Amino acid sequence: MRFLLLFLACFFVGSVLAPSASAQDAPWAVGSWKGELVLPNGALEVMLYVENNDGVLEGKMDIPAQGAVGLPVSNVSVDGDLVHFELAVPNGTAMFDGERDGEGFVGQMSQGEFTTTFLFDPAEPVDEAPEATDTPGEPYDAEVDGGSLSGTLLLPDGDGPFPVAVIHAGSGPTDRDGNSAMMPGKNNSLRYLAEALAAEGIATYRYDKRGVGASLKPENESDLLFGT
After folding, report:
1. What angle do CA 105, 111, 112 make, to 5 degrees?
2. Range 110-126 average pLDDT
3. For residue range 157-183, what is the model confidence (pLDDT) as tens digits?
4. Band of the pLDDT at 10, cuts 50, 70, 90?
5. Considering only 154-158, 178-182, 209-213, 219-223, which range has the smallest mean pLDDT?
6. How far is CA 17 from CA 11, 13, 72, 89, 122, in A?
7. pLDDT tens digit string along 27-41?
8. Chain-centroid distance, C-alpha 129
9. pTM for this structure?
10. From the CA atom positions of the chain, what is the Rg in Å?
11. How many CB atoms lie under 10 A from the CB of residue 155?
12. pLDDT of residue 228
């Protein structure tokens, strides 16, 4: 299964919905779907989102365990109870062909000579957390070896100098605001923390780690070193 995990890990992160085929006879397919790719060593969870844009089906996919969000899904089509969609990957195209099964749908994914099964069920709607404030801070990119880290500098009201706290997100694909692709919805925990510190006269810089959010991902991860 290393081949499958490799192409999943190589997905690029984006936010643009990809155009696709006709949405005729497709009302049941539109919505949010929570799915699994069935592997010998377990199941890989994925999220699929399908929209009807003026009669054209458009889709995107998240793979939380990989930190991948908004992967473009193309050629989405529905013919009665049959559904088809595709994911472009660096070494080919992953083809999904399924059939409606109760409230969800099941089928087979193929990429070249590799095949596996998948299943999708309707996903529960998630209530988004409200935006923290109307003054979230100023964008600030920190230059590091091999690129830059995109972040937000939040200053207290008044004249400085101010003490500064650097907010580093925890493990996993957690962004500068404390939100993770592995968790549904947004909690904005680190953004709230920054605003609470600003109210106490403490400036903060919070940032997206390498490969998360707007931060650039290094070309060769073997070059990464732990700093002190």
Report:
1. 140
2. 84
3. 888 899 999 988 877 778 888 887 656
4. very low
5. 219-223
6. 15, 12, 6, 15, 20
7. 788 889 999 988 777
8. 17
9. 0.51
10. 21
11. 17
12. 45
Are 142 and 56 a contacting pair, CB within 8 Å? no
Q: Output the six-digit token pair for 216.
A: 């650039």
Q: List CB contacts of 196: < 8 A, sequence separation 6 or more.
A: none
- The Cα-based distances of 21 to 56, 87, 90, 212 in angstroms read 6, 14, 22, 31
The residue with tokens 């988004």 is 128
Who contacts 64 (Cβ-Cβ below 8 Å, separation ≥6)? 45, 46, 47, 173, 180, 181, 182, 183
Q: How far apart are CA 142 and CA 70, in angstroms?
A: 25
Answer yes or no: are the C-beta atoms of 29 and 141 closer than 8 Å: no
Catalogue the long-range contacts made by 96-105 (C-beta closer than 8 Å, 24 or more residues apart): 100/28, 104/33, 105/29, 105/81
Of 149, 213, 167, the residue nearest 186 (C-alpha): 213
pLDDT at res. 44: 84
Residue 194: exposure state from Cβ atoms within 10 A (0-12, 13-18, ≥19) = buried
